[in-house]
Amino acid sequence: MRTFNQYLKEQMQDEEFAKEYEKIQCEMDDNIIDERVTLNDRNQKIIDAIIEKEKKLCPGALALIGVYGSFLTGDVHPLSDLDLLILINDDRGWGLSAGFILDDIGVGYDIYCTTWDALKEDAEYNHPQIAKLLDSNIVYCADEKYLAELEGLRSKANAEFSKPLDSAGFSKAQKSLDDAKIHFANALLADDMPAKRSEACWVLYSIENAYAMLNRTYYKLGGRRCFKELNKMQKRPENLTALIENVAAAGSEAELDGSLTALMRETSKCFEKEEKALESPKEEPTPDSLRGTYEEMFSNWHGKVLLAAETDDKHLAFMTMGSLAAMIADIAGDINIDTDPLEVFAKYDPKDLSKTAAGYDEILAKYLKEYEKTGLKPVHYKDVNDFIKNYL
User: Fold this and answer.
1) Residue 222: what pLDDT?
2) Residue 273 pLDDT class (50, 70, 90 cuts)
3) Total domain count, the chain
4) Whether residues 354 and 310 fall in one domain
5) Are 202 and 80 within one domain?
6) Domain check: are 11 and 88 in the same one?
7) Among residues of the chain, what percentage have pLDDT more than 70?
8) How far is CA 178 from the centre of its chain?
9) Per-residue pLDDT at 28 exceeds 70
10) Which of 106, 128, 143, 194 could bond to 218 as cystine, CB 3.0-4.6 Å?
């Protein structure tokens, strides 16, 4: 078993870690320096205490202990706690958990245990907070088989996020963005600044997760260096960290709403760009793929949009145009047609529903050209008797 001092000695070989570690030591007050000298011993005492308690309380429940967080990344400061991966084999191991504050140095500690099931879930790479799994430097292991199992999970996670972004990976990133959109809506609807900030915090958390997933990476450093990691990502707006900072810096409800909107708008644009890059080429329209769609559009909504114009029913007109747009969007999702669903709402004018009805006809006329390109012709009958004669 390696001691914490042995582990730290290995870390000090890294020039950046050693430089940061020395800097923090020099910045500490004189009354803290003596305690800092014994920091390594204190950390080792905590690790030893966990191992000793396991032997007394729940023998065999502890698989391994690893160090991650600031003592791994070099982000130590006078109030740094010790982040440990305490991997337990069964529920008895929960007894090793503890939360406490050391009054002499004013540092809090959260001795939290992790199960194998939790690590297995992390290995699926459904979120980017997996540094505990991938980066923990193991300082105690009860049996070599546990190391082998841990390495298997690490290999699985590495294989997952090392793959180029595909539709499945994009869907995972999109899920985080969808979470951000929910919190964004809640923030705009909130009645006061504390409630807005609470939701805005979740917006940032979800957005930062979304970008990591979009870029097939995970957060290796602590929160202090989140911007450094974000700025290394290729798939992002150029001003992403400034947009995030504006949210945290907003001093009024209007500023917070505006900064959140700007962040969400730029993020949505970024995701739309990446989604388009992943799209498979659309199929060219064929008679079989379009047959009956023009007649359906005409029969479902032509009469409604005319009625809406006659009665000045804005709701009916609005929802009718929305239904037409939805059908066009559904068709355009798989088939290469020259009709954009957004064109439908470009034709909507609540002040002139007759103009809206004319716009509806324009959209149908444009779609009819797509229809006829495939060799289809709309089915017309002079009257119901003519229909019955041909139908039967």
Assistant:
1) 72
2) very high
3) 3
4) yes
5) no
6) yes
7) 87
8) 7
9) no
10) 128
Q: How does DSSP assign 89-115, residue by residue?
A: SSGGGGGG-EEEEETTTTEEEEE-EEE
Residue that finishes a domain, picked among 113, 133, 161: 161
By residue range, what is the domain housing residue 192?
Answer: 167-278
**What 3-state DSSP class applies to 69?**
coil
What is each CA distance from 141 to 44, 96, 147, 314, in whole angstroms? Answer: 15, 16, 7, 70
Q: What pTM value is reported for the model?
A: 0.82
Residues 6+ apart with CB under 8 A from 1: 139, 140, 141
Within 10 Å of residue 121's Cβ, how many Cβ atoms? 15
Encode pLDDT of 65-87 as tens digits: 998 876 666 666 666 677 899 99
Q: Look up tokens 């799994």; give the residue.
A: 133
Provide φ and ψ at 6, rounded to 5°.
Answer: -65, -45
Q: Looking at the structure, do residues 61 and 157 belong to the same domain, yes or no?
A: yes
- Please give the structure tokens belonging to residue 185: 């809506």
The whole-angstrom separation of Cα 274 and Cα 165 is 9
Provide the pLDDT for residue 18. 60
Strand partners, 140: 65
In the predicted structure, residue 26 carries a pLDDT above the cut 70: no
Co-location of 233 and 203 in the same domain: yes
- Last residue within a domain, chosen from 126, 161, 196: 161
The verdict on 300 and 154 lying in the same domain is no
Smallest Cα–Cα separation from 123: which of 149, 154, 164? 154
Domain CATH for 75:
3.30.460.10
pLDDT tens for each residue of 335-383: 999 888 889 999 999 999 999 999 999 999 999 998 899 999 999 999 9
Do residues 141 and 20 both lie within one domain? yes
Spatial distance between the Cα atoms of 275 and 161, rounded to a whole number of angstroms = 18
More confident residue, 60 or 38: 60
At residue 298's C-alpha, the angle toward residues 332 and 324, to 5°, is 40
8 and 156 fall within a common domain: yes
